[in-house]
């Protein structure tokens, strides 16, 4: 379909209809008017969802997305299965893009600052004003600068040409620009590129502080490859980092290196490999060995606290299980010598023969146009020197994302006239004179080439949200250029500009189609993908190796890391992300300082006690989070919070730890050195609250999250009695012997051999010896007789990384309110699915962290069902544990009796606009899914396995009168999971993926000794035996 | 004395019981006349006399859970030419030319926590009249069925074992 | 000779239960009915204060309805706490009345004569108070009637498998029977009051509740017939109702609740707290109204022995629970019971144990039993202890969920405190009115211990 066009009034009418649905559940007076279309857009039918392929712009990775619109309102974002990078997964930040679109604090129209106060004005006046300033600057050659975010295609070109025409320069800048990666690769391989790291193929993966499952480069793609590697059971991941990140938590081995010592470890490994000739023959053997000769295991041990034996062992493992993969360049390791670190890692990859295997220069990440922090600084200097007359910013927030010492804020004040195209009033926009709000990526046309050969398109999935009088940034730039009558051939409008940019692509990839067909196809698929041949690279030179020295008086090294929830801070004004428990600490709505239990004991602090973290540059007060997964000599703080503007959810929440940095950057690449300071940590009087969604990380040997030794799996000795199911004898298939018919052998044996278990009574569950008396009595009449499906889930703990994308997906799909820090502190989390984190053992070398996605288990024999006095919760014919909100009286007995504690109660009215507890302030309520009731106060709610999707899927199958296909119906969590750890489907179909998964040798059921016969089967996490 | 007391007791008990009982059954009577519409569109003429198929205007009913109110352009499809002299039609053209949408008054309203899927019922071969009553005979459309849960459930129960389209008694189908 | 008189001759009243020699029947009427008179300043002050507290309670409840149940301290995992604690506490209170009046009646223990009216009144008011809470603690009280099985157009029924549904039946039945039993016992005395009443309204009231009693032999015959009939009917309820209440917990699989011990354990506890409260109510009354010769020390001592007995039963139940947790196979149970006494709510558990088991030990000593001030305070402790017993069972068990993810502790909010206080006020409001309006002691039965006017000496 092409992007649909219908006028704004039509759109308002749609909303009229839409709101009736959205208001469902709120005790509101009836919407007594029905507003029809004036002229019906041909591709819109009320009540039918439409999907638009587009590209996610929440981080530079640029995953492919499908955007779901109902009645012209975008209500959900999902990963696009065909996309060459993301393959259908989408991370929590991508899911939350919706709340950026409907951000109640978005700029509602052009604003001009007059005597310090914002004053709205019309677009024409705004453009006129801006045009004058711009032309004046252009004529008098005073200099014009345009700062954009990571733009890789049409907009970048446009910005460049506009800047050029105005006699200025355009700068595309990202806080996490990976300058050192590009520089190091230029120096070692002669390619200023970010290579494609093939985690799927790697035998042993060593990450030197590169959080490739969180924020580093292309997390969704990498997570998927990681899962593929895990599926082989023979992969081994080593995390070399002072603080155990989420990536480290998923690794098999944690090497707690001294901060800054990563390079030495890499070179030490390289040395072991070279000196032992463990790797393939390399021509530069002598030269390289000479370069690393200084890094003997003993020296390395002295400098990095990594035992020499561990180092040798790592090196041998790394060289043995080829192809292996070493990665580096995460924010937490970005020091004054990060180029050296990455060069060292490149060398390690090179000597282990991974070049061209797992490190390839084919689908390289496109960060080419990206300016370094150094470039930004030179701009800042010229701004400070008054060499910039007009500054135009778009999609970048340097005022927040650069440390104070860089002096952007001060320099900004020196600029006579500042224009922001930002759609939110972030710190940078707040410092400008004129705001020409841009559309959100979901509302506007655009394109991007985030990786070579991936020419992605963004299409407007909806008319712009009427509340916000914004325009596409491209149009604004064009309009500015015209208003300032800059010389140049300006396109009529943004759309035609983008199309013009795509002409060459059409020449190359058009394949005989005329442009419009090509264009429409591209729009339909969200872009065009071409295969790129790998550029052959060779070792071009060994750079100087130097270890960073941390400056300052303190006794602890200050480690700043990118927040998995907020990335560089751009996610901070999204309630979903604020309320999403941090994957590591499970803290919400704030910032905290992670310290080792022993350090905490020395200071005499416990979780949540106030700490004062002090460096030369400054000091902040933070609550302590006592975390065994961190070195005793390190204090770690997440970035991304502590905004001074940006919106109601972000403003004055938490702390921006960048203020702790004193001037330091990587001379070689001009990258900002995040790892450069030592800190003194003392007990403080007060700090913000530490709100932990999961206070205890200990599962009290309840065996909720289980593991299985890899050795047993590979040896095939893991399969237990009665767990093997012969082909064709899946659950419910006739002729299956009763003892193999799952779920039956705990039921009264009152049936003949030919008896078939009704769908609702089927589970994959088989009791262990502990379970004695049966309870479930299958219902054999009415709807229960005709039921054909038993919906169930299988969750693979091997591939669940704890990234929590599923949680946000569920919030989006099921209208779950974000209740805010005060409620969270009282344990009133509303999430239907959560990631439970259990730290069995966290110590250098040997650690065991388990992530357990926990949602309603849809028990075949549910404790909650029997106790509800009014049948508000009951077992439905297709095995779902149903919760009928409007029947619920709110006795909460079901929650008391639920051993998994997955039921959430509506303590207050989160859905009533007139109440203070309302959590969907206009226009956030536009995102509400009309197919799901918005719950009112006093009722219980919980996971429904997305019953609305099940009904829709069954409906579609009926329309084509065929059976439901496996995989055609998918829950929001399963759809979003980047690693496909969650599989949803029909247990009655023995061939379905879920049936197969549920009968594998790794399966188990949470708390199965209670005989609840869960509909959710977990697959044990295989762990390398030495880590258990 | 004693008698009076006894009578009193019995009377009150009965009263209470009746109230409780009847309250649980109250339905608005089908005969309530429909609301006054901005344009009095005679269904009896269009659906009855002219015999226009319901799905011609309410085309959403078989494709979507929502049976749409026809866009004004649909009306204009005929009424650009047909009987343009009538005042009501002039009202209609007025709306269309002003680019205003017609604020039809809602006749059927389900409570917010109930989901009804038109597509499923139409495709299962139910005539619109089965729920909406003799619309082709209504000058002014009024809510024909009580739209109470009992009413839905009764029909669902009857079709529980319907070979082609077994209805379900599963609460979740309408309440989710 | 009615069955009752037979019983009298069967086991004679102990001399100590005799009223002083030559104590005329009329004086007894005077003594008892003098309570029914325009109250003095003391009563009024107490009553007004009581109403104020009640008002505060109602305000809190209104607040809770408007804002939502969130104003209470509840949180996942502790979804039940103060309100259900109150519910169980008051149902428990309600038990002793029927025990004293019905069971002891059937067992012919005569010390009940002097005390059972107060106990019965307490029962009825106790149930009235308890009945508030199941509604009060729900998220949407305005739909509470859905728990009642009545035919409706939705064709929906309540879930008869749910222990909460059983509660509905148990409590309503108990309310009906206990109030009927109360009224029946009241008939002859109400008649006596009626014959003296001046105020027309009071007169009417007594006419109604005395059901036109005239005191003929026939009247007495039917009266005793009915009385013993209802006594027999009420007796099983004493045991059934609180067993059903205990199953609210025993039927759930939550560790700490899932126990077969609960039914007898709860019944014993109920009687324990009930009798304690009866003592707490009687001591002030007999003192302020100078009725020590009617409710004698012996009566009080017998009651306190009942307290001692039930205290031992409750203590035994505690020990059994712990033994089973230690001895049994479930590591969850073991974990929980350790947590109870040494976990987050250790203080509650220790209050419970001290008040219910340790302090009552002193009742083994006669001086303590016969010392009214001491007995009064001791019984106060028992009631506090019993309230905490329910709190410990409910809150601490929930605070230690099987899945350790939600580890958030419950803290009582002001709303809950206000409503709890309001409930006590609600109970005492009824009781204060009762004391001044209805004969608080059974004239008819006490008279039986008096010398009959015809004969010159009391019944042997």
Would you kindly provide a written description of the structure presented here, covering whatever features stand out?
The complex is a heterotrimer of chains A (1028), B (176) and C (460). Chain A is an alpha/beta fold and 1028 residues long. Chain A folds into four domains: 28-177 and 370-509, Rossmann fold (3-Layer(aba) Sandwich), CATH 3.40.50.740; 179-364, Dimethylsulfoxide Reductase, domain 2, CATH 3.40.228; 556-692, Beta Barrel (Barwin-like endoglucanases), CATH 2.40.40; 768-1023, Alpha-Beta Plaits. In chain A, helix 4 (123-139) packs across helix 18 and helix 11 crosses helix 12. With 176 residues, chain B is an all-alpha fold. Chain B has a domain at 38-69 and 104-173. Helix content of chain B is 42%, strand content 1%. Chain B is built from eight helices and one strand; from the N terminus they run H-H-H-H-H-E-H-H-H. Chain B is extended. Chain C is built from 16 helices and no strands. Residues 1-16 of chain C have low confidence and may be disordered. Chain C has 460 residues and is mainly alpha-helical. Chain C has a single domain (3-455), classed as Formate dehydrogenase/DMSO reductase fold (Up-down Bundle). The two termini of chain C are 16 Å apart. Chain C is 69% helix and 0% strand. Chain C is globular and about 70 Å long. In chain C, helix 8 (217-250) crosses helix 9 (262-288) and helix 11 (331-342) crosses helix 12 (346-358). Chains A and C meet through helix 27, helix 28 and strand 38 of A and helix 6 of C.
CATH topology of the largest domain in chain A: Rossmann fold
Q: Write down the overall mean pLDDT of chain A.
A: 89
Radius of gyration of chain B: 22 Å
* DSSP strand tally of chain B: 1
How would a textbook summarize the main sheet of chain B? none
Main beta-sheet strand count, sense and barrel state of chain A: 8 strands, mixed
- Extract low-pLDDT stretches of chain A: 1-31, 720-749, 769-773
Strand content of chain B: under 5%
Tell me the domain tally of chain A.
Answer: 4
Structural class of chain A: alpha/beta
Determine the number of helices of chain B (DSSP H or I, runs of at least 4 residues). 8
The helix/strand class of chain B is mainly alpha
Question: Roughly how much helix do the residues of chain B carry, as a percent range?
Answer: 40-55%
CATH class of the largest domain in chain A: Alpha Beta
What oligomeric state do these chains adopt? heterotrimer
The helix fraction of chain A, in percent, is 25-40%
Tell me the distance between the termini of chain A.
53 Å
């Amino acid at each position: 379909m092409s992007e649909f066009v219908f006028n704004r009034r039509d759109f308002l009418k749609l909303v009229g209809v839409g709101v009736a649905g959205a208001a469902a559940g709120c005790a509101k007076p009836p919407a007594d008017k029905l507003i029809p279309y004036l002229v019906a857009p041909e591709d819109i039918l009320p009540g039918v969802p439409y999907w638009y392929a587009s590209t996610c712009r929440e981080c530079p990775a640029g995953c492919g997305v499908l955007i779901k619109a109902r009645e012209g309102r975008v209500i959900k974002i999902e990963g696009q299965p065909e996309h060459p990078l993301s393959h259908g997964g989408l991370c929590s930040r991508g899911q939350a893009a919706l709340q950026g679109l409907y951000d109640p604090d978005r700029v509602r129209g052009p604003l001009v600052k007059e005597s310090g106060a914002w004053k709205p004005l019309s677009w024409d006046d705004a453009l006129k004003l801006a045009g004058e300033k711009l032309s004046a600057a252009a004529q008098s050659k005073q200099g014009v600068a345009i700062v954009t975010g990571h733009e890789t295609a049409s907009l970048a070109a446009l910005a460049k040409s506009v800047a050029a025409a105005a006699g200025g320069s355009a700068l595309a800048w990202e806080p996490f620009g990976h300058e050192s990666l590009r520089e190091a690769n230029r120096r070692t391989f002669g390619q200023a590129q970010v290579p494609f790291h093939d985690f799927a193929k790697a035998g042993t993966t060593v990450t030197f502080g590169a959080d490739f499952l969180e924020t580093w480069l292309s997390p969704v793609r990498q997570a998927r490859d990681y899962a593929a590697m895990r599926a082989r059971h023979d992969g081994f991941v080593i995390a070399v980092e002072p603080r155990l990140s989420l990536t480290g938590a998923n690794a098999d081995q944690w090497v707690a290196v001294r901060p800054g010592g990563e390079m030495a470890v890499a070179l030490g490994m390289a040395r072991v490999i070279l000196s032992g000739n463990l790797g393939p023959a390399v021509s530069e053997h002598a030269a390289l060995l000479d370069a690393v000769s200084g890094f003997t295991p003993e020296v390395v041990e002295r400098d990095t606290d990594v035992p020499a034996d561990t180092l040798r062992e790592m090196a041998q493992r790394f060289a043995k299980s080829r192809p292996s993969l070493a990665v580096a360049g995460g924010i937490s390791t970005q020091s004054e010598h990060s180029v050296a670190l990455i060069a060292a890692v490149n060398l390690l990859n090179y000597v282990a023969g991974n070049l061209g295997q797992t490190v390839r220069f084919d689908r390289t990440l496109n960060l080419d146009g990206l300016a370094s922090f150094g470039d930004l600084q030179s701009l800042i200097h010229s701004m400070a020197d008054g060499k910039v007359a007009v500054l135009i910013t778009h999609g970048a927030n340097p005022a927040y994302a650069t440390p104070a010492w860089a002096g952007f804020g001060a320099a900004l004040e020196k600029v006579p006239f500042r224009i922001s195209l930002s759609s939110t009033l972030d710190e940078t926009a707040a410092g400008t004179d004129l705001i020409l709000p841009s559309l959100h990526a979901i509302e506007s046309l655009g394109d991007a080439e985030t990786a070579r050969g991936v020419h992605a398109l963004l299409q407007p999935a909806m008319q712009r949200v009427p509340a916000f009088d914004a325009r596409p940034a491209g149009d604004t730039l064009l309009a500015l250029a015209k208003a300032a009558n800059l010389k140049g051939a300006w396109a009529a409008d943004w759309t035609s500009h983008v199309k013009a940019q795509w002409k060459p692509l059409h020449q190359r990839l058009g394949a005989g189609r005329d442009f419009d067909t090509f264009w429409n196809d591209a729009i339909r698929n969200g872009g065009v993908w071409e295969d790129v041949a790998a550029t052959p690279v060779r070792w071009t030179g060994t750079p100087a190796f130097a270890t960073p020295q941390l400056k300052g008086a303190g006794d602890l090294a200050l480690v700043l890391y990118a927040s998995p929830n907020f990335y560089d801070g751009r996610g901070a004004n999204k309630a979903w992300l604020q309320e999403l428990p941090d994957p590591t600490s499970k803290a919400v709505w704030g910032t905290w300082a992670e310290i080792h239990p022993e350090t905490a004991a020395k200071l005499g602090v416990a979780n949540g006690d106030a700490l004062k973290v002090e460096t030369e540059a400054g000091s902040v007060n933070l609550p302590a989070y006592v975390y065994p997964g961190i070195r005793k000599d390190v204090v770690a703080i997440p970035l991304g919070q502590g905004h001074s503007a940006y919106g109601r959810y972000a403003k004055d929440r938490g702390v921006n730890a960048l203020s702790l940095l004193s001037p330091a950057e990587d001379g070689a690449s001009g990258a900002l050195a995040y790892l450069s300071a030592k800190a003194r940590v003392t007990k403080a009087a007060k700090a913000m609250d530490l709100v932990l969604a999961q206070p205890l990380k200990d599962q009290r040997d309840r065996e909720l999250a289980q593991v299985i030794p890899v050795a047993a799996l590979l040896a095939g000795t893991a399969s237990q009695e009665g767990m093997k199911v012969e082909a064709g004898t899946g659950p419910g298939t006739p002729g299956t012997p009763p003892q193999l018919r799952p779920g039956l052998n705990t039921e009264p044996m009152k049936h003949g051999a030919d008896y078939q278990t009704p769908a609702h009574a089927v589970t994959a569950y088989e009791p262990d010896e502990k379970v004695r008396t049966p309870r479930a009595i299958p219902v054999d009449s009415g709807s229960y007789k005709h039921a054909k499906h038993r919906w169930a889930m299988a969750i693979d703990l091997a591939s669940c990384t704890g990234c929590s994308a599923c949680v946000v997906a569920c919030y989006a799909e099921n209208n779950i309110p974000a209740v805010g820090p005060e409620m969270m502190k009282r344990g009133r989390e509303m999430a239907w699915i959560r990631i439970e984190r259990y730290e069995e053992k966290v110590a250098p070398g040997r650690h065991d962290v388990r992530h357990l996605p926990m949602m309603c288990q849809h028990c075949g024999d549910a404790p909650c069902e029997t106790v509800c006095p009014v049948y508000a919760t009951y077992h439905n014919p297709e095995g779902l544990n149903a919760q009928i909100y409007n029947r619920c009286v709110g006795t909460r007995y079901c929650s008391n009796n639920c051993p998994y504690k997955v039921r959430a109660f509506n303590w207050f009215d989160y859905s009533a606009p007139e109440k203070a507890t309302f959590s969907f302030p206009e226009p956030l309520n536009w995102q509400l899914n009309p197919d799901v009731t918005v719950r009112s106060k006093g009722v219980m709610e919980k996971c429904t396995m997305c019953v609305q999707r099940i009904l829709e899927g069954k409906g579609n199958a009926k329309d084509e009168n065929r059976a439901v296909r496996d995989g055609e119906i998918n829950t929001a969590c399963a759809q979003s999971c980047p690693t496909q750890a969650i599989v949803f489907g029909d247990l009655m179909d023995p061939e379905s993926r879920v049936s197969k998964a549920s009968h594998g040798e790794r399966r188990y059921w949470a708390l199965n000794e209670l005989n609840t016969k869960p509909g959710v089967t977990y697959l044990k996490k295989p762990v390398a035996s030495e880590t258990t | 004395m004693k008698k009076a007391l006894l009578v009193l007791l019995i009377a009150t008990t009965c009263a209470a019981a009746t109230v409780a009982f009847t309250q649980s059954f109250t339905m608005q009577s089908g005969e309530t006349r429909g609301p006054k519409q901005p344009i009095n569109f005679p269904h009896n003429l269009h659906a009855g006399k002219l015999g226009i198929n319901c799905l011609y205007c309410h085309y959403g009913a078989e494709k979507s859970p929502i049976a749409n109110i026809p866009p004004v352009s649909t009306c204009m499809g005929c009424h650009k030419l047909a009987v343009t002299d009538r005042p009501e039609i002039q009202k209609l053209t007025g709306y269309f030319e002003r680019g205003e949408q017609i604020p039809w008054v809602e006749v059927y309203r389900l409570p917010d926590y109930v989901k009804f899927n038109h597509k499923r019922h139409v495709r299962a071969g139910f005539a619109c009249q089965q729920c909406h009553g003799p619309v082709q005979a209504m000058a002014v459309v009024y809510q024909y069925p009580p739209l109470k849960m009992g009413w839905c459930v009764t029909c669902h129960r009857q079709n529980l074992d319907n070979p082609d389209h077994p209805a379900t008694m599963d609460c979740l189908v309408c309440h989710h | 000779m009615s069955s009752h008189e037979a019983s009298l001759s069967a086991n004679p009243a102990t001399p100590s239960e005799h009223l002083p020699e030559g104590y005329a029947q009329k004086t007894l009427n005077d003594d008892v009915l003098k309570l029914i008179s325009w109250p003095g300043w003391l009563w009024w002050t107490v009553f007004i204060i009581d109403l104020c507290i009640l008002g505060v309670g109602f305000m809190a409840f209104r607040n809770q309805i408007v804002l939502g149940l969130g104003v209470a301290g509840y949180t996942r995992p502790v979804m039940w706490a103060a309100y259900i604690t109150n519910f169980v506490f008051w149902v428990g209170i309600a038990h002793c009345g029927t025990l004293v009046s019905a069971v002891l009646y059937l067992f012919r223990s005569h010390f009940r004569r002097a005390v059972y009216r107060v106990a019965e009144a307490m029962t009825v008011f106790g149930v009235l108070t308890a009945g508030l809470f199941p509604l009060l603690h729900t998220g949407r009280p305005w739909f509470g009637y859905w728990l009642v099985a009545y035919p409706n157009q939705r064709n929906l029924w309540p879930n008869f498998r749910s222990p909460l549904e059983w509660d509905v039946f148990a409590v309503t039945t108990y309310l009906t029977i206990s109030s009927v039993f109360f009224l029946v016992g009241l008939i002859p005395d109400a008649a006596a009051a009626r014959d003296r009443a001046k105020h027309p309204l009071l007169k009417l009231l007594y006419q109604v509740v005395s059901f036109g009693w005239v005191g003929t032999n026939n009247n007495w015959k039917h009266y005793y017939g009915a009385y013993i009939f209802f006594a027999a009917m009420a007796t099983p309820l004493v045991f059934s109702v609180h067993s059903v209440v205990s199953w609210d917990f025993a039927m759930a699989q939550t560790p700490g609740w899932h126990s077969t011990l609960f039914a007898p354990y709860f019944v014993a506890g109920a009687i324990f707290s009930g009798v304690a409260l009866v003592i707490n109510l009687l001591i002030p009354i007999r003192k302020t109204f100078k009725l020590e010769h009617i409710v004698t020390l012996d009566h009080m001592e017998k009651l306190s022995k009942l307290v001692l007995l039930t205290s031992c039963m409750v203590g035994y139940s505690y020990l059994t629970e712990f033994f089973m947790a230690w001895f049994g196979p479930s590591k969850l149970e073991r974990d929980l019971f350790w947590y109870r006494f040494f976990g987050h709510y250790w203080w509650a558990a220790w209050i419970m144990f001290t008040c219910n088991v340790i302090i009552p030990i002193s009742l083994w000593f006669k001086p303590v039993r016969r010392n009214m001030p001491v007995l009064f305070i001791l019984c106060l402790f028992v009631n506090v202890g019993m309230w905490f017993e329910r709190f410990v069972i409910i809150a601490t068990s929930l605070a230690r969920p099987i899945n350790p993810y939600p580890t958030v502790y419950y803290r009582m909010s002001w709303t809950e405190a206000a409503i709890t206080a309001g409930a006590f006020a609600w109970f005492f409001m009824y009781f204060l009115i009762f004391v001044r309006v209805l004969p608080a002691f059974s004239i008819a039965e006490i008279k039986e211990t008096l010398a009959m006017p015809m004969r010159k000496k009391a019944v042997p």
